[in-house]
Amino acid sequence: MKINVIGSGFSSLAASCYLAKDGHEVVVHEKNGQLGGRAQQLREHGYVFDMGPTWYWMPGVFERFFADFGRTPSDYYKLERLDPAYQVCFEQNQSIQIPGNLEGIIALFERIEKGSGKHLTTFMEQARANYALAVENMVYLPGRSPLELVNLEALKKAHLFLTNIRKQVGKNIKNEQLRRILEFPVLFLGAKPQDTPALYNFMNWADFGLGTWHPKGGMGKVVDAMISLAKELGVTFRTNSTVQKICVDNNKKIRGIETREGFIPSDVVLSGADYHHTESLLEDDSLKQYSARYWYTRTFAPSALLYYVGFNTEIRHVAHHTLFFDTDFDAHAHDIYDVPKWPKNPLFYCSFPSKTDASMAPKGKEAATFLVPLAPGLPDSASQREHTFANIISRLEKLTGQSLEGHIEFKRAFGIKDFIGSYNSYRGNAYGLANTLKQTAFLRPNIQSSKIENLFFTGQLTVPGPGVPPALISGKIAAGEILKRM
Description:
Elements: E1 2-6, H1 10-21, E2 25-29, E3 41-44, E4 47-50, H2 59-67, E5 79-81, E6 86-91, E7 94-98, H3 102-112, H4 116-134, H5 152-156, H6 165-170, H7 176-183, H8 202-209, E8 213-215, H9 220-232, E9 236-238, E10 245-248, E11 254-259, E12 262-265, E13 268-271, H10 275-280, H11 292-296, E14 303-311, E15 321-324, H12 329-338, E16 348-351, E17 366-374, H13 382-400, E18 408-414, H14 416-423, E19 455-457, H15 468-485
Parallel strand pairs: 1-2, 1-13, 2-9, 6-15, 13-19
Antiparallel strand pairs: 3-4, 5-8, 6-7, 10-11, 11-12, 14-17, 14-18, 15-16, 16-17
Helix pairs in contact: 1-9, 1-15, 2-15, 3-4, 4-8
């Protein structure tokens, strides 16, 4: 079969590898000049910035992917387990560094709240069991039917869909700072802890149990590895190749795509691009599965305002990954999910990869990526971006006890308008659909179009959900469905 793939993010790259391995002619079309989708890298003045994902969690998913092709991650890039895994700043002179191993974390909890070490041990045993069920089994299912979830082990854990992470965490851990640390991993799923089923505490095992890792050279090296593997398997890549139309015949079957180069025939089209955008490429609205109202009423994971900043000095008192929880968590969440607006004092995250990896910044300097979660669809102006940056840089200076604004050598912002312009992202969302109970598994948009037999989808808007490891899994699922059904 000739298979045209739209987009070159992690899910598209993964699917392309599986499809090419099976002997099909695979061509990947990327609208931008650089491959990798949201995981592109920005290089300026000797600084290297991962423009999208910066966390390397769930290493087993990467190992499983490369093993499917007789490879290992170490064939392509070097991994380092971070210790500390990350740091959480609550206020000046009050920060907690999370050790790089579970034993150290349990001891840390016990020092902060007597008795919490025992509770954390029990909680992590449950999280590990849920990880084994969810990540090693359920998330590799295509989301076609609720019957996929009906097995003995899943039924035993059905009660975990009836409570939420916040209640589960707060049951035995009383210290507010420790509770916020335990709630943090579900933010990768794109929903509030009180709206996320307790089954998703498997993310705490991904965090504390499996650790936080860094590929030398940044997450862009993972993209490079997957591109190298895809090329070894025969995949063709075309950059600056915008798909303008998906052409369908009278039998409601795709016959090809149109780009600026003209018509390109295709037996199958797989889109790793924004789902809503992909269906907009169909000429006939009756071929769309999901209406404008459907998309507008979904619960989206946040968008983000990012700043890529090069400092001509090293920054003290921070770790490679640093979370700034010095303001009200619930107030910021309210501004994202409940009454969408620009937050006055947002929580934010910063990646300082040059703390670990000298290749990310010139000697004696610091590369920093700041991320402020925002509601998708907000008005995005230059003045609001500058106002927000002034807010977080002043807080960074206060929390680190260091004057930094005068040391900025390079700065670039990337926000809602850029997510739309660069990735055709619906309302400028950054992470796709949130993993709420009503948007889990078979309740997410279909991998295979229900209207067009040979149109398939992959990525964060379909199963299993947002995040880099789920994107690799989504690519495998989509490729499997194509190979099984076409």
